[in-house]
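Input (structure):
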C-alpha cells in the first residue's frame, strides 16, 4: 500500500480519560510503503489541546477538534516525515510547534511529562500523568499486518516491527546513542509505572504496560532487566 493522495478516513477513538487517538492515516516508509500513523490528542486545562504526530487533517477532524477545544501545542517526533504538518500550521497559526529537546521546557510538562534521548537523532517519549499513559514514537513499533496488502506484510515481518512482537526498529539504538543510552531511557519509562502504551505506529497496549516494555527490550536489556527483576522480587 503506497501513500496516495486520496484523503483517508480518520477515526477518533478514546484511549483514556482526556486522551484520544486519531487513526486511519499513514506516512511514507521505505519504498513508498505506507506506515500507519496514530495522532494523539490530549485535553489540557483551559480548553487547550496537545497534539502529537499530526497526520491528515480533513474537515471531519477539524470539526471534531473544534468541538473539543483549541489546538495549542503540536509535537513533532523526529521521524518519519509528517507531510501534513503544514496543513496543521495553516489551520492553527497560533499553535506552538515543539521539536526535539524543546519539549523539556514546555508549559504543559506538569500534565505531560517528557523524556528526551539525544544521539545522532533525538527521541522523545511522554507520560500523560493523569491517565498513566506513555506515548511512544519509534521506541516500540507494532504494525498490524492483517489489514495490509499481501506484498507489504513480508516487509514488515523482515523489519521485525509487526504486532506479534512489537519492538524498536532495527538500528534504532545506534541512532540514539547506543544500547546503554537507550537502556537508561527504558529504565526511566519503567520507573514511570505506565498503565498503557500508546504507539504512534501500530497497536496500543492497554494493559501490563511495564511487561510489554520489558518484552520489547528483552534482548537489548537482558542483564539489566534480570537485575531489575531481582530487585523487585526482594522488595516484594
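Output (sequence):
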Amino acid at each position: 500500500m503506497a501513500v496516495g493522495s486520496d484523503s483517508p478516513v480518520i477515526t477518533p477513538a478514546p484511549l483514556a480519560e482526556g486522551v484520544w487517538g486519531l487513526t486511519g492515516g499513514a506516512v511514507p516508509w521505505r519504498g513508498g510503503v505506507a506506515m500507519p500513523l496514530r495522532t494523539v490528542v490530549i485535553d489540557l486545562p483551559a480548553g487547550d489541546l496537545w497534539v502529537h504526530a499530526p497526520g491528515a487533517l480533513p474537515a471531519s477532524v477539524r470539526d471534531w477538534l473544534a468541538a473539543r477545544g483549541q489546538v495549542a501545542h503540536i509535537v513533532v517526533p523526529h521521524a518519519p516525515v509528517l507531510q501534513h504538518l503544514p496543513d496543521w500550521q495553516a489551520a492553527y497559526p497560533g499553535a506552538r510547534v515543539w521539536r526535539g529537546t524543546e519539549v523539556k521546557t514546555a508549559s504543559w510538562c506538569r500534565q505531560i511529562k517528557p523524556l528526551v534521548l539525544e544521539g545522532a537523532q533525538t527521541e522523545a517519549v511522554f507520560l500523560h500523568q493523569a491517565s498513566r499513559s506513555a506515548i511512544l514514537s519509534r521506541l516500540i513499533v507494532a504494525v498490524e499486518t492483517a489489514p495490509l496488502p499481501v506484498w507489504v506484510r513480508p516487509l514488515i515481518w523482515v523489519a521485525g516491527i509487526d504486532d506479534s512482537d512489537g519492538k524498536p526498529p532495527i538500528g534504532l539504538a545506534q541512532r540514539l546513542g547506543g544500547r546503554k543510552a537507550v537502556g537508561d531511557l527504558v529504565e526511566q519509562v519503567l520507573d514511570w509505572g505506565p498503565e498503557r502504551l500508546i504507539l504512534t505506529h501500530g497497536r496500543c497496549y492497554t494493559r501490563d504496560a511495564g511487561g510489554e516494555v520489558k518484552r520489547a527490550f528483552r534482548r537489548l536489556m537482558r542483564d539489566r532487566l534480570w537485575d531489575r527483576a531481582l530487585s523487585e522480587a526482594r522488595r516484594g
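Notes: The mean pLDDT is 89. Strands lie at 11-16, 19-28, 34-43, 48-52, 70-76, 96-99, 112-118, 122-128, 133-136, 196-199.
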